């Protein structure tokens, strides 16, 4: 297999390196689109119920046959990857256009090669049956994304973030290798199919938690999410979109795979509780940190953590429901989690593209420098608004459908009395996450896109080119399709959800419970659109013959208001900050205006809200390294006679060991 | 029946502000304004033209339609007593909560669009209080689901609950009334009659709306208050096993009187205390839920 892959890699790289700089993006797009089509067509076939399993590749190698097999679960992820990759390569065309002059051709080629390899390897990850080929693609994906982050390698923070990412991913990788090696040692096979046998005969939790930690590292589960808010803002926006929308979902894929192997085992309850707890903490942590940030891309990165939390929470509820024998809860939880995976990939790609538009047109994503961007960039503004509404799970967009499905599972667990307390915990957390997400993202949209420009960068910004708008419209189409036709969307994920509930007829339960509810959601969504449109029309009609004049914003009688007086992002989330101080580490430069200062002089003040966990991690590592270093430093005395003594000691050691036959 | 439901809910929505005004007037020893004065005021608003700030964009003009539209559709989910509402499906309570959230989203963005520091201040408060009240609302509704065993508003109140849940239901109704206070911006969370922009929450977000827009926002406010009050009234009616027609007058009486009395006797909270107030509602809701669960398990606390 490796041979074939090397051949494909060489062909891709050769082609991209060979074509002229201007054509590289289109070449990459063609390659990605071809690869994605090849994988997505059978995937759509599976999801529509035409086929059960399709082999993508089948290669005989020295370690037995290696197969890439699509089942409904992988098929769903293939679709997610296909949409995300194509949109992101399409977006990169316009986004990178103005940077091409400053980069060498090889640099650009490397970037596009990595982009192509990244999307192909992600498909490999979700299609691989064998554990080792899975790990191979996994590593390929990590390296490709590492190269992608490094596009602006001249910036120090980019190099730092990329290195931190590489280190964290390899810690995760070691955990995964250890897990699969354990599986191989116990069962003689490292395939995902062997997991079920292993869990049946061995102690479940050690291996499950090991793999969960490994996959959670990629997905961004608390507390190993710390790489995410560093890497996403550092990467170019189309890469952030691809990583946040699609790549972290491969971590979710891994979690789903190992969890599906637990169906029907007694350990499922523990696993469900672990997932629910992890989901709640991750979701709340993500959303509170997101609302504290003042950098659009960092906010979006934290919101990815929040959404991963929601997905894992849904999965946990589903597993607890399945364990309690309540298949309706199981179906709702799992379907909600799967659908939210698809939904998040759509709206998060859109939002990162939007942030990319801000960055490329105004050269900043800092909320304090933006403001009124919607007026300068109306299309970006509208698209970003749709993404924001979807992110806050508002009807009629797609986020609402998946969150409602999870809520339905939670309410069903409470009403039927099967998982009352766990469901209540999930319910409170999900409601709070939803409310805080609304706070965080009205802050983002309100300060960046509405109001008056806070700096000249925004006032001079222009709308982006049409290719980028098209790249943003692609996920929007999916968002509206899911939001306005929820039954069809859930019909797709029900087949994947069936993997998690072998004892129950998923389709029948969906028919009985989910479809009537989603028909209601569908009616509601259309009704809201119709009523709002009608009211808007009536209002317009009413105002047509009346005097409509312009007057300044009400300033409470103050005669000299200026744009700097607008509410900033920092002040918008100040209320939440005051009750969630324990989650963030605040570092500030300069001094804020003191309350006692009646006539404030000029102040320069910069505050950052850092993740406490981040510090915890960093402090721990640094402390350990320092300690080891101190011990080792004791040997470095700087005297030649000591070094000769060490060399002698070493020789003696080798001699003794060889005499004892230990070498 | 759905039409009777809508009619009763509309009547309740129109009557509640009148009852509040009358209660306040009675407690202050005044004769008070006409019972339907608020309707005349809004009619006046709906006939006016408009003034828009040049800072605002098209979004600002769309906000009143979205706010009123979501309130209208959300109200369609609410049953009056055991009547069947127009829209009903399993999990419709989530749709109800998120429609209100969509309205709030629109109003907050509209406020941010004016570029005014005061409106941003109101928006930020509204966003925070809205986020904190959401879990309380969900938990209260979950208590109803736990007690009745159903997951849609229409079914929650049809089945007669067992007698042992009466106290739990009454406490849930109490929580819901507190949520009404918060969501409709009444004392002690917010004071609709305050004249200082710095201390406003809901009112300051609407400072730049006038005419038709302001009228629409006010109507939406009535509907929102009526929908949530009706939930509280339904809960009380279910607790005592009262017939369906009792719910509508009960909603008017409960909200009208309680808001009127509280506004005449209490000062509003300091703003910093509001978060504590709202979190306490959430904690109370969770406590009620837990007692409901214990009762359901037949574990009687000595």
Topology:
The complex is a heterodimer of chains A (663) and B (302).
Chain A: H1 2-18, H2 24-47, E1 54-61, E2 64-70, H3 72-97, H4 105-127, H5 131-149, H6 156-187, H7 192-201, H8 204-219, H9 228-234, H10 237-260, H11 268-292, H12 296-323, H13 327-362, H14 373-376, H15 378-391, H16 398-415, H17 420-449, H18 456-459, H19 466-484, H20 486-497, H21 506-544, E3 548-550, H22 569-572, H23 574-579, E4 584-590, E5 605-611, H24 612-633, H25 640-659
Antiparallel strand pairs in A: 1-2, 4-5
Helix pairs in contact in A: 1-2, 1-4, 2-3, 2-4, 3-4, 3-10, 3-13, 3-19, 3-20, 4-5, 4-10, 5-6, 5-10, 6-8, 6-9, 8-10, 9-10, 9-12, 10-12, 10-13, 11-12, 11-17, 12-13, 12-16, 12-17, 13-15, 13-16, 13-19, 13-20, 13-21, 15-17, 15-19, 16-17, 16-19, 19-20, 20-21
Chain B: H1 2-28, H2 37-46, E1 50-52, H3 58-75, H4 92-113, H5 117-148, H6 153-156, H7 166-183, H8 202-205, H9 211-240, H10 247-265, H11 271-296
Helix pairs in contact in B: 1-9, 1-10, 2-9, 3-4, 3-9, 4-5, 5-7, 5-11, 7-9, 7-11, 9-10
Described by the principal axes of the CA atoms, the overall outline of chain A is: globular
Largest sheet of chain A: 2 strands, antiparallel
List low-confidence stretches of chain A: none
Flag low-confidence runs of chain B. Answer: none
The count of helical stretches of chain A stands at 25
Please state the overall shape of chain B, judged from the principal axes of the Cα atoms: globular
Percentage of helical residues of chain B?
55-70%
Number of domains of chain A: 3
Structural class of chain A: mainly alpha
Taking the alpha carbons of the first and last residues of chain B, their distance comes to: 44 Å
User: How many distinct helices of chain B?
Assistant: 11
**If you compute it from the alpha carbons, what radius of gyration of chain B comes out, rounded to the nearest whole angstrom?**
19 Å
